[in-house]
Structures are given as C-alpha cells and as structure tokens.
C-alpha cells in the first residue's frame, strides 16, 4: 500500500461552525418522502436518511416537526421513500422548498406518480428506487430528535440503474439516471466516478 503523506495538511485545516458540521457527513442520496392519510397526499425532500439494518430491512429518516409530512406520517404510520435522479433535480428541490399545507404539490408541480398498493403513498416517477415503509413507533426519538425508524415492507428499483441487489457500475448509468447528493441550498453532487479499493 502506498504511504499517504500530505505535508501541507496542517495549514489547510480550518474550524467548521458546528451548525455546518453535518455537511461533512451528509453525502448519501437525497430521498423523497411521500405520505398519505384520509384522502390527502404529500411529498417532501429528505437528505437526512440512513439504512439501519439488513434484515428485517430498516431505515431512518429525519422528519422535522414543522413539516406537514410529519403529521401525515404520524397519522398513517406509512411512508414511501423514493430515490430521485438528476432527471428530476429541480422537482426534488421544489418539494423540499414548499409545504403541502399550501396546496397539493403533486398537482402544483405536475409530479407523475405510480400507485404502490391500495391506500399507500404514491411512488414518484423519475426516481430509481422506491421503498414502501411502515413506521416503527419510537415516541422518544421522534419527539427528541425527529428521527423516524421504519421497516421496509416492499422495495422496487429501475433495472436500468440497480440490478442484482446493487447499483450498476457507474459507467452503465446514464448521467440523468444518477442519484442526487445534497450539499445545501439546492446544490447537489451527482456521482461522476467509481473506483475500486483493493485490500492492503
Ligand atoms: C434537498 C433537501 C433536503 C431536505 N432534507 C430534509 C430532511 O432530511 N429532513 C427534514 O425534516 N426536512 C428536510 N428538508 C426540508 C423539507 O423537505 C421541507 O421542510 C418541506 O417543505 C416540507 O414539506 P411539507 O410541509 O409539505 O411536509 C429538505 C429540503 C431540501 C430542499
């Protein structure tokens, strides 16, 4: 293994304001959280999400108390998490910049959807993956940290992007079909290179 040396590193290190420290970690794909309850539906963007467990499949998403999504998710115990692609970057930002309380975002933004099962929130088109989730009630973490833990009860992916249980090699995925990674304020990184690390 090549030894890593960087003689100027000390000089380049700067303090990061704590309110922005999360941006150092927050490089996973931004998702869309769709919700539905009592005949009403909604969708918002969520960059703060993570896998928690392989089997049973569990994930966690931060859903702020200020969002209408939170009301619908708490009331229904369901959410569909979709993984948007560069194709719908503007839309992903838009659903994260306005509230469904002010009007149906699906209609206002012309969002195409596909039905999941009867009564479940919709699957958003222009995404490469969809996870139908049942919330596992954890009142303390929901209240204290806005974290919603959920079990994935069904999942689908666009075979052009994700096959045999994993993302295809990046060079096989058209740029518009690649995932969005939020840097803040509507700036996203789209994966541009894939490397293969070797064991030492
Ligand atoms: C790219 C992006 C990522 C976001 N990530 C989150 C998140 O992880 N958790 C959250 O609560 N809000 C997040 N937001 C903000 C919500 O999407 C935003 O408050 C939205 O308007 C809520 O909509 P609603 O009131 O219709 O539910 C994000 C916004 C953007 C643009």
What are its keywords?
two-stranded antiparallel sheet, globular, 200 residues, 5 helices, 16% helix, binds flavin mononucleotide, alpha+beta, 7-stranded antiparallel sheet, 13 strands
Describe this structure in words.
It is a single chain. The protein has helices at 9-12, 68-76, 89-95, 105-108, 139-145, and strands spanning 31-37, 40-46, 49-53, 58-62, 78-84, 113-114, 123-124, 127-135, 147-157, 162-163, 166-167, 181-184, 187-189. By secondary structure, it is α+β, with helices and mostly antiparallel strands. The chain contains 5 helices and 13 strands. It has a 7-stranded antiparallel sheet, with helices on both faces. The protein has a two-stranded antiparallel sheet with strand order 6-7. Strands 10-11 form a two-stranded antiparallel sheet. Flavin mononucleotide is lined by residues 30, 42, 44-48, 62-64, 67-69, 93, 96-101, 182. Flavin mononucleotide binds at residues 30, 42, 44-48, 62-64, 67-69, 93, 96-101, 182.
Biggest sheet architecture: 7 strands, antiparallel
**Given the helix and strand composition, which structural class is it?**
alpha+beta
End-to-end C-alpha gap: 6 Å
Mean pLDDT: 94
The helix tally amounts to 5
Which geometry do the CA atoms define?
globular
**Would you count the extended β strands for me?**
13
Bound molecules: flavin mononucleotide
**What's the SSE pattern?**
HEEEEHEHHEEEHEEEEE
Rg, Cα atoms, Å: 18 Å
Helix fraction bin: 10-25%
Strand order of the largest sheet: 2-1-5-8-9-4-3
